[in-house]
Design brief:
Blueprint: E1 3-7, E2 13-17, H1 22-31, E3 38-42, H2 48-59, E4 63-66, E5 70-74, H3 85-88, H4 97-105, E6 107-110, H5 124-132, E7 135-140, E8 143-148, E9 154-157, H6 163-173, E10 179-183, H7 189-200, E11 204-206, E12 212-216, E13 225-227, H8 232-244, E14 248-252, H9 260-268, E15 272-275, E16 279-283, E17 292-294, H10 306-313, E18 319-323, H11 334-339, E19 343-347, E20 350-354, E21 363-365, H12 369-381, E22 385-389, H13 392-395, H14 401-407, E23 411-415
Parallel strand pairs: 2-14, 3-13, 9-10, 17-18, 21-22
Antiparallel strand pairs: 1-22, 1-23, 3-5, 4-5, 6-8, 7-8, 10-12, 11-12, 14-16, 15-16, 18-20, 19-20
Helix pairs in contact: 1-2, 1-7, 4-6, 5-6, 8-10, 8-12, 10-12
Bound molecules: uridine-diphosphate-N-acetylglucosamine (UD1).
Residues 23, 26, 92-93, 120-126, 160, 162-165, 186, 188, 303-304, 326-327 line the site of uridine-diphosphate-N-acetylglucosamine.
């Protein structure tokens, strides 16, 4: 089994380019289905989640080409509206193909999506929206069968601004020729990037970056060329890596305005941060507690940055309280961080982290994507050589992780 071997206690220094955002690329690849045309995506990250999205596209009959600097998808030949369970199980974002298939064909059949084990991840809000606009959604065994019945303009109010539900409802609404208004929509920047792509394809959508989206569909879309936005979670991970190793790192092609909450917390923790339009520079000599971290929907502190930040705070001076408000089981990395010597008490949605300065080496297994990244960060701080197994979780979301960390001076390699 491939394992990361990391010898820590080396400050990371240098520049690192931030790639395209996983959570923007995946819904955009799904959305390309409803254009029935060729689209070119630049900065599509080379990660296993994207490879799996391309496999889903191929299974639907689409043509996919990987060029040096872009992914070219031709969705015109798509002729299936069903996704096999083994492909659905590869990732959470597979569920976004539901909205895209409905918009294109008026029907879709999918099974339970996979993804990180973060607690219950129901899709009731997705179905609430789809049913409201006139799709019939029923389970036949473990297969979710959705079909257009009588689409109508309507107002849908989400009880919670779910990212996935917003994306699915947005896509499925594009089949309806009357206006659909989505209230309390998620405002994560990846949704604005999806809308940006759809508008290039000819879709009529207003309200990007706000919690009220107005969608008027029913018209034929065409393909488009789009550059995927930079990955704010990859950026947050490298910022925490610089902090935990007391290093100095400059992120290239990053979007500081998407990272306000993370940057504020790192500044509170004693890091020196400078930003320009598309770069972030962070230097850390002494790290202390940032007080508290409370995850919540954008633009609050993102749940995906909670684990890397926890690793960093485990090495700073003083105590930090983490409150996880998005997922019910997102402290799975805590036992592994304790193996590195971290002092963490976790119960329910709270974790209290007492900084210990230097961690020690450990052999651990990644539990999920961001939790796994937090373990890599802990190993980068630790004295000695650590090993991290189950790295498939990490490879789902970090492009060229080993190469990028090595270029910053980290001693990291993959062993079989
Ligand atoms: C997306 C991101 C993930 C990020 C999360 C929150 C992708 C591929 N994944 O996940 O990285 O951590 O947003 O920013 O973009 N919920 C329900 N019913 C629903 C839908 C969601 O109860 O129908 C609950 C979930 O169980 C969870 C919370 O709402 O507790 C947030 O989920 P959601 O915003 O939908 O996240 P995802 O789209 O799964």
């Amino acid at each position: 089994m491939p394992t990361y071997q990391i010898t820590g206690a080396i400050p990371l220094c240098g520049q690192v380019p931030i790639g395209g955002a996983k959570n923007a690329a995946l819904p955009i690849l799904a959305a390309s289905v409803l254009c029935a045309d060729q689209s070119r995506l630049h900065c599509c990250p080379n990660i296993s989640d994207v490879s799996n999205a391309l496999k889903i596209l191929k299974s639907l009959g689409c043509k996919v080409q990987l060029r040096e600097d872009c992914v070219v998808v031709d969705t015109y030949p798509a002729n299936r509206c069903e996704i096999a369970p083994n492909l659905m199980a590869t990732m959470r974002a597979a569920v976004i193909f539901l909205g895209a298939l409905l918009a294109r064909f008026g029907e879709a059949r999918i099974t339970q999506p996979g993804g990180c084990p973060l607690g219950e991840r129901p899709i009731d809000l997705h179905l609430l929206g789809l049913r409201h606009m006139g799709y019939r959604c029923e389970y036949e065994g473990n297969v979710l069968c959705c079909k257009e019945e009588a689409l109508r303009g309507c107002t849908i109010a989400l009880p919670f601004p779910s990212v996935g539900a917003t994306e699915n409802i947005l896509l499925a609404a594009l089949r309806c020729d009357q206006e659909i208004v989505l209230c309390n929509a998620a405002r994560e920047p990846e949704i604005a990037d999806l809308i940006c792509y759809l508008k290039k394809c000819g879709a009529q959508i207003s309200g990007a970056n706000t919690s009220v989206l107005r969608i008027r569909g029913g018209r034929r879309l065409h393909g488009a060329t789009h550059t995927v936005m930079p990955d704010r979670m990859e950026a947050a991970t490298y910022l925490c890596a610089a902090a935990i190793t007391r290093g100095s790192v400059e992120l290239l092609s990053a979007q500081p305005r998407h990272l306000t909450a993370v940057l504020e917390s790192l500044k509170k923790a004693g890091c020196c941060v400078r930003v320009s339009e598309d770069r972030i520079w962070l230097s850390c000599k002494h790290l202390h507690s940032c007080g508290s971290i409370r995850t919540a929907p954008y633009d609050a502190f993102p749940t995906d940055a909670q684990a890397p930040m926890m690793a960093a705070m485990a090495t700073g001076e003083g105590s930090t309280v983490f409150e996880e408000n998005i997922f019910s089981d997102r402290f799975r990395h805590v036992p592994a961080l304790r193996s590195f010597g971290a002092d963490i008490y976790a119960a329910d949605r709270y974790a209290v982290v007492k900084g210990v300065g230097r961690l020690h080496a450990a052999n651990v297994a990644a539990t999920d994507l961001r939790g796994g990244a937090a373990m890599v960060l802990a190993a980068l701080n630790a004295e000695g050589t650590s090993s991290i197994s189950n790295i498939a979780h990490i490879q789902r979301g970090y492009e060229s992780f080993v190469q990028k960390l090595s270029s910053l001076g980290a001693q990291i390699k993959i062993t079989e």
